[in-house]
User: Fold these one by one.
Assistant:
Number 1:
Amino acid sequence: MSNLPFTFDIPIPGGVPTRVDKHVQRRLSALKGQFLDQTAYEKKLAEEDSLVYEVYEIHRPEIEGELLMGVSFIHPGKVGQEFYMTKGHFHTVLETAEVYYILQGEGFMVMETPEGETSVEPLSPGRILFVPPRWAHRSVCTSRQKDLVFFFVYPGNAGHDYGTIEQFGFRKLVLEGEGGIEIVDNPRYQGR
Ligand code: M6P
Ligand code: ZN
């Protein structure tokens, strides 16, 4: 891999980057067990395995000192009352952080530590979010029409630990309530 400086562009306001090494697409089937309303999930999945989010990644070595970057698009949609979201993960190397720069759409970053601290931060265009080391993170799109689009960067050696979240889910959920968006405790959460 070349070690020369390089540039690429993200079309404003929030398009596909001009450099893409890998395009990841995650569908409903990849989020099995994560949505609160399992009946609504099974029904929706039986109709169509819809695209929930896409990630355009820039390839760099997955080693300490490197930075991994890309642009994510979380599509609008809901399963029952729950907005479309990413799987979410801890970093395998827990003591590694991540930065997000929001380009388009509205949503939230749902975060928690292994010790049970939680934080749910609103995301909107122009906002930068710093996810500190140790905090698991999941992005949620609450826009009705627009994708939630953001640039992200994290250390090359961070790695993705999906297992913990797949098993227990996050402690907080983002739902559409009668009076608007609600952030609620996950009733299915089994404490670790
Ligand atoms: C963000 C970054 C990526 C991540 C992507 C999708 O853009 O954190 O590293 O891959 O979201 O989220 P997930 O890996 O949890 O499916
Ligand atoms: Zn991450």
Number 2:
Amino acid sequence: MQPAPDAFRTPKGTNDVLPPESGRWAALIAAFASRAGRFGYGLVMTPAYEHIEVFHRLGEGTDVVRKEMFEFEDKGGRKLALRPEGTAPVVRAYVQHRPTAPWKVWYLSPHFRHENPQAGRYRQHHQLGAEVLGVDDPALDVEVISLAHGFFRSIGLSRFRLAINSLGDAQCRPGYLDALRSYLRAHAGELCEDSRSRLEANPLRVLDCKVPGCVEVTERAPQLLEHLCADCKSHFEAVQAGLDAIGVEHEIAPRLVRGLDYYTRTTFEFASEALESAQNALGGGGRYDKLAEDMGGPPSPGIGFGIGIERVLIACDAENVLPTPVPYVDAYVVDAVGPEVGAEVAALLAELRETGLSADRAYGGRSLRAQTKSADRAGARYVVLFGRAEMEKGAVAVRDMESGEQVEVPRSRVMAWLHEHLGKTHRDGAR
Ligand code: HAM
């Protein structure tokens, strides 16, 4: 059978990430990992797929579950789904392993949603996320939000806004939903079909609808913040005060409900002002104080966020920050002699790498010219040249690729020489 014409291309809505662009991914991930580590979060890794029941906890009425899940059956007939988001698997892992609370974890994972692909919206996207289970202290909400906020700042982004809201809890939300439902029923004729169909079962979703008619109606709708019970109100006030105290600017967005059903109390979203509004959410999250119980675990409040790496990179482009790293190696070994020095070339290269320098070489017996070109392309700081004349004196030539100067260095001294000269300027390879 002939393969389809596009069989050997990435499936719709997915992307390859290749060097040097992947260098930006590496930089983002390293910045997040180091920041999360400083905040006391450990890396968690869960499978790329779970039993489908795990994701049903996101809400049977959400788009993610209703329309976008990649579902399949294993050979034993168990229904599984590729992870559309990171919170439910982490909570499943918490319930399964019962680690000591508070459990503070971070993750980097691919996520799968069957969406209509467009710039900033893909069928496979990647999130950097953090979750904490076992604490309902508002000071933790502040920590989690500031973990994300400072990460955006640390990579150079400045044109983004933080919106926060409270969705209340089992005490106060039902009363609010009744009030919202009656209001929406009275305006049903002005709502889009989708919103009308959601009005009874999930009126909060209507607040999220971007259709202009619905926006007009919901702008005048009763607000949850006015219906919060005393506990939720004081929790939300403490979160705001905590953010103020550490200088994290935020605005209150009474209609921020987010697209997943597990949220309680604090919700938040970071939106880039440099991107088009349909795809401007860089990341978001909130509390999910009932999710662990919903999965059969002990009562364990939780909070976290997910940051879309692809979106962040688009925002970085728009703000002209986090450029693609320029290729760099400390030393590039060039062989102008041939196979008889092969072992020596390999030994020097190994020594350079094992002693902490970045080093590379060309392969396949290429000409001196071609090797020098490769050294240039690799961003070599120094070229170590095995030339016949130098070899006869037990030496190699070392060329400074910035100044163009070349010196002869005894073979036995070349490691020390390079370490000495790179002492201040040596940096990690950027490829
Ligand atoms: P989410 O808002 O669905 O939340 O996704 C988080 C972020 O992932 C979004 O703000 C966006 O940057 C990115 N994202 C989502 N879908 C796509 C897509 N199709 N293409 C590209 N980027 C996308 C969650 O997933 C929650 N698990 C966040 C959370 C963690 N809440 C509590 N803890």
